[in-house]
User: Fold these one by one.
Assistant:
Number 1:
Amino acid sequence: MSRITINDKTFEPSISEAEIKQRVKDLAQKISRDMEGKNPLFLAVLNGAFIFAADLMREMTIPCEISFVKLASYQGTTSTGKIKEVIGINENLSGRTIIILEDIVESGLTMKRMIESLGTRNPESVHICTLFFKPDRQKVDLSIDYVAFRIPDDFILGYGLDYDQRGRGLKDVYTLVSD
């Protein structure tokens, strides 16, 4: 792994594909134990969580389902703070155990909005599972049930995360080098 440049930004490797895959496998094992007998519905937040969701689903050992929702709050390397639901949820959530799959939780505003939206559909329970969590950026109180990596407040890309729609397909995670 070596430094890469995308558009006008330089990134250095920070988390290897092997480490990510191991953490995803560990999360799947924990969720499978915790959700035994429940047939949870995973709601993966697009676009960033699609790779994470696919890898996690392949490691699950219990019956489960998956669907996708698209929320947008990013522009370039900064959150706009305005969350817009682009693609909604079509499944009946009443009485279901829901696990939201997110690529990264920073302020928590996106998750708060999603939980509020889901609450109107009478799920049995709602859980949050995130690949990355930036505790220093958190603005709202959230209960995050499953976290693969707690990371500092750095801009990252790769493994589904992007910079202006580029870099999502990188197998490793890269951190922005300070200008």
Number 2:
Amino acid sequence: MAADLISLLVLVAIFAIGLWRPVNMGAVAIVAAFLLGTAYFGLGAEDIAGGFPAALFVTLLGVTFLFGLARANGTVDWLVGAALAAVRGRVALIPWVLFLLAALITGIGAISAATNAILVPIGLAFAQRHRINPMLVGLAILNGTNAGGFSPISVYFTIVDSALTKGGVHVSAGWIFLVTFLFNLALNLVACTLFGGWRLRGQDAPTTRPRLSTENALTLVLLAALVLGAVAFGLDVGFLALTAAVLLIVVFPAHAKEAAAGIAWNVVLLIGGIVMYVALLQKVGVVTSLGAAVAGIGSPLLAGFLLLLVGGVVSAFASTNAMFGVLVPLTIPFVLAGHLDAFALTAALCVATSAVDASPFSTGGALVLANTEESKRDKVFRALTGWGLAMIAIAPAAAWLVFLLPAG
């Protein structure tokens, strides 16, 4: 337990230093991982560095590079115009169109990172063009991704259902999908209220689109290939985006420097460092230890709430898929013993663990931050952090009250 306490105190110190001084919080986290890993846990530099999220790095690099090119050559402007034309210029409908698109793409089997990587850059470009709060558009996409994230053929549900089935527990896929969709729909209504969605009613924009050049046409073909590769064939969206960017530059090199300068390196460092530190805690068993300690509590209802809380806290900084793999097996003894209802516990865990994905330290939140215009990034970072912290507190409590308490 001493290791658990020290690790959590160091995490608090990372945030405190990052807020106290103008130093990138990710850099502080990397230093903390090095000092704690070597001095306390006896790990080598290679073990510590192994926690750096290479896949997330490639995703952020590839997506911001490709869409930087698409912005520079006017393709994003064309896409924004197409979106406006589809809703007849009604700006207020765009966040909800993005919400439904995100739910659809994730619901048919795309991983959440792919959905977010496809929609976030376009949505944030629209927000910048029409002076909409980037939080409204970003959260609409992230909430939509989670709304479709537990369909019977989705990646999230497949992971959860596989772990339950191995333990001899079965839940209704349709009901899990319905309740998680409704929860995220309600969450998006809250976001719409907080970040100015209703004030957009009656605001119309011109629906004219710029002329489609040869470069724009190639960019659209490459974007379509990215979507097809990620959704239909399950290929990594980061590598796909980077490949598309390189091909585009080879054919049309004029915007290469401008796009490269727009890569959000400070966001890469911020997110990479924090995730690297949390990966250290997972490697040395701190996360598993906390989960096992919670599962050993005598009161099933209290243990259930604490499992939801652990899921929310850790998922805000680490892989949601990984958290399902860790926590779902811990819930099975409570279900088999008859202490907690299988559907109620599964629904609560799905909601509590995924609702925090808008944290700036998760892939979705990081993409929103990276694609926000530079002048607004600090403000959006604070807003995403506040939203993420609120979800850590609210989502587990709401899930417990709505699902576990009545069933218990």
